[in-house]
Amino acid sequence: MTAMTKTAAAVLISFGALGAIGAHAAGVTVTISCGSVGQDFEFCKKAGDEWSAKTGNTVKHLSIPQSSSDILGLFRQMFAAKATELDVLSVDVVWPGLLKEHLLDLTPYANGAQKDHFPAIVANNTVNGKLLAMPWFTDAGVLYYRKDLLAKYNEKAPTTWAELTATATKVMEGERKAGAPDMQGFVFQAKAYEGLTCDGVEWVSSFGGGNIVDSTGKITINNPQAAKALDTAAGWIGTIAPTGVLNYGEEEARGVFQKGNAVFMRNWPYAWSLSQGADSPVKGKVGVVALPKGDGGKTAATLGGWQLAVSKYSKNPKESADLVMYLTSAAVQKDRAIRGSYNPTIAALYKDKEVLTANPFFGDLYDTFVGAVPRPATITGAKYNEVSAAFWNATHEVLSKKSTGAESVKKLEGKLNGIRRGPNWN
Asked: In terms of residue numbers, what domain contains 326?
């Protein structure tokens, strides 16, 4: 083993040998990180098993943290050591620019397959003319709601944040009086991590406050509409949202909603299939719509999604790239869309009857998915992680009532100028 940090080495020792799939003595072993628990692992294991059976190679799974911030930290540790133990890795939509020095150019292996995927995502994954990752699934934030509860109180799905606040309050208070003391109005991602950056970008954009940094590199977050957006979100804490939401990630929010203890939830499309599972208390009771808009703005959903890339340090680049092309193929993406509500990155699948039957809202929210608001990762390049951390911490301070929106965005502007350290980000 190469000289790795203790953290990365510990992960490999503990989890590197998890689940060899379809082992074949004649083939090579490809180690992949594509989720360690739940349906992420289940679907990746299934597709890896299929590829293994077809090629005679072995697939091993590297267990990784659940937090995207922690995953990125692990990958950076491994890349710094030029570790050869990881071949294929799942890459967040904001990472290609950050990890560009360590990823293999997949252009020679794609054979033009990238043309079937959304052009914007392919462009996102292309740095200096090199295709560093293949689109695996795309994401955009959506609003989940309890159809049965809104009908009970004669309410409709909200189109503005003011409507959401009013409806959540009405239904929550009514249900608590009716004997459901644990009912919450709204749950979302408010922990200080990348998920809060996603939520915060949606709030700010939906109020007409722009983005953290615009497409030209200008820092734009210090404006009244951005401050108003953060103050509005802070008003939910302790009223329609539990104080504990300040420690919620995606799964914590889903846990509360799926148990039947929330009226509304902001989350990604993956939560749909889980809410419709046979053992789900809210099966058949859930609706999905676009996120609300604020004063002076329009509905906004943060672009999410994951890609698959090959480490430049892989000992088996050809086989690793072949696995990536299989996992991102139309057949595998269709299966994942039907069974797991993962949004395909191949446009043709949004017209597939089986996909739309399994995910009725895919068709209605198609424009939301393809027109989602990107985080400023491309323009800020290698400094994006610092930018995002500064933003989520500033947002968390407002949500925690430690700062007002106006105070926070002004302070954030100064911090971002310090991160940039000059007229350009690079």
From this structure: 6-139+304-363
What is the torsion angle, in degrees rounded to the nearest 10, for the CA atoms of residue 69, residue 375, residue 380 and residue 397? Answer: -60
Are the beta carbons of 322 and 115 closer than 8 angstroms?
Answer: no
Final residue belonging to a domain, choices 330, 363, 396? 363
Quick one: angle between helices 194-206 and 68-80, nearest 10?
130
195 with 250, same domain?
Answer: yes
CA distance 231 to 361: 30
- 202 and 168 inside one domain: yes
Give the residue carrying structure tokens 């911490």: 393
State the total domains in the chain.
Answer: 2
**Cβ-based neighbours of 94, under 8 Å, separated by 6 or more:** 194, 375, 377, 384, 388
Is there a contact between 400 and 181 (Cβ–Cβ < 8 Å)? Answer: no
| d(C-alpha 280, C-alpha 284), whole Å | 9
Reported as a single tens digit per residue, the pLDDT across 308-345 is: 999 999 999 999 999 999 999 999 999 999 999 999 99
pLDDT in tens, 354-404: 999 999 989 888 888 888 898 999 889 889 999 999 999 999 999 999 999
Residues 81-92: what's their mean pLDDT? 96
The reply to whether 295 falls in a domain is yes
**Residue 73, domain CATH:** 3.40.190.10
Both 155 and 235 in one domain: the answer is yes
Q: Are 133 and 310 in contact (CB under 8 A)?
A: no
Query: Do residues 236 and 398 make contact, with C-beta atoms less than 8 angstroms apart?
Result: no
Q: What's the CA gap between 83 and 314, in Å, rounded?
A: 8
**Banded model confidence at residue 215, pLDDT cuts 50, 70, 90:** confident
Looking at the predicted structure, is the pLDDT value of residue 20 above 60?
Answer: no
pLDDT at 159: 96
Is residue 253 assigned to a domain?
Answer: yes
Return the sign of the alpha-carbon dihedral for residues 81, 82, 84, 86. Answer: positive
Whole-angstrom distance, CA of residue 276 vs CA of residue 91? 28
Report the C-alpha dihedral over residues 356, 112, 87, 60, rounded to 10 degrees: 40
Distance (Å, whole) CA 259 – CA 242 = 15
Query: What residues pair up with 103 in beta bridges, in sequence order?
Result: 311
